[in-house]
Request: fold
Amino acid sequence: MLFCVIFIGIRSFVKSRTTEIQTPMHCTVSILIPAYNAESFVGTALQSALDQTWPDTEIILVDDGSKDQTLAVANRYESARVKVISQENRGAAAARNTALREAQGDFLQYLDADDFLSSDKIREQLILLQEKPDYLSVSSAIYFFDGEDPDSGLLERSGALDTDDPVQFLMQLLGSEGPTRTVPYGAWLTPRSVATCAGPWNDDVRSPDDDGEYFARVLLASQGIRASKAGRYYYRKFRHGGSYSTTYSEPMLRGRLHSMNCKANYLLARTKDPRAYRALANRYVDLAFGAYPAFPKLTEEALQKAKEMGDTDYIPKFGTWKGDLLRKLLGWKAAKRVHATYHRTADHVRAIRHHQ
Reply:
């Protein structure tokens, strides 16, 4: 008799859980894709959106004035489920805002045109948000180099954590203990209600960190995060340029500083925790490190902001043992000057050899 009772209980639980997973909720997900000069990749991105096992999706691609065949490739996918919009070049944030204005979904999935999604990503995240309508869901990410097997890339789960404290999460993400943690913006699944509270993308200033600024607002507008153990966001990296976020020029570094100032304002409006100030100081030092010695004025502005946050003893690493040794012996500014001089000389020698 006891066995029968246990069996019936287990069967009822399994049946209810199966029903829950099969029909988690009735909602539409808008997959929003900004695209610029991505003719080689945009088809893969669109196909991954179409292949989602969650059936109720709309896909909106905004071509931001591409000079290659991106728009032509995207137009081949246009259908009742895929809407393609073309606009003059105004930057990724402006393209995302265009897509956002067109979106009708209850949830938002952003996807860069050179990245793609695993087929189960959206479904698995929606299951987690069934009873958490004011929460975000985050998946793991795989970072892979273009031309290599995506599944052989680096699986990153450092940002995929459950929390009911978005302020604490943002402090940790910014790196209160040193290096920052990274969550590519396509790893998030965002309820439309939370995104509405956060507001649109900031497209007044072009910034490589526009996604960091936007999702700082989205995080703080949410009640917390639920991490998906299944589903992946595949982030394509390039060994020789090709990535907007890794290009160092004064306008782009200025954009980073603008985004950093915004994030500081958002976070400090919610907490006075010393860890928040330390995290922000660390990130300002990162920016100064990247700007020096090419842009000394911007370097000093970033270091001044770090001081306003209470300063920090954090110093970024060079990434090579020689650079880190020079940093310890000479200080980071002198080491950066030596590094810059070496590369200028090497470039000059290569140019001479090329013309001989």
